[in-house]
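User: Working on a comparison across species. This one is glutathione transferase from Harpegnathos saltator. Can you predict its structure so I can line it up against the others?
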Amino acid sequence: MPSYKLTYFSVKALAEPIRFLFSYADIEFEDDRFNRDDWPKIKPNMPFGQVPVLEVDGKKINQSVAICRYLAKQCGLAGKDDWEAMEIDATVDTIHDLRQKIGAYHYESDENAKAAKHKVAEEQVPYYLERLDAQVQKNGGYFVGGALSWADFTFVALLDYMNYMMKPDGDIIEKYDNLKQLKQKVVEMPAIKSWIEKRPQSDA
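Assistant: Here's the predicted structure for glutathione transferase from Harpegnathos saltator:
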């Protein structure tokens, strides 16, 4: 079994889908978290100056989506054929499109621009969630193929982060029953429930 070390800030955010996959597959990993004050000295040692970074037997790789896909293939969550794999990839990319639109508002420092981006986010978030909710309904309670995939883990694991960025708007999936049911199924899985109970607490 390879040794795994995941390096990220001391929050959930982009690393949490990776942690969900490790937990689901019962793969031991080092959860290396650091404070933002330490980032300037850590950044030069990270590929492309980015995190999360996964080390596999000492070899470093960046890009959270690529890391998730790698782990999903190992634990049977990457689709039963090439078409499903592509559907999962497209869904994950769409989820990250949504996250980035929310992030554009949250991380904007100019107050005038922030107000405008919040208005855009308020319009765009329902647009995405309505379609994602319909996709889950169409596919038997999951995003793709009527079965659990890493797209489901990606969405549920990123929800805390997206809700945090949309403050004070509240729970972004409150009006979407299929997405709420999907979240409940994922967080009640024994391996995921155990991870959530023991992980360090953070807002995002």
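For your comparison, note: The chain has a mean pLDDT of 96.

User: Helpful, thanks.
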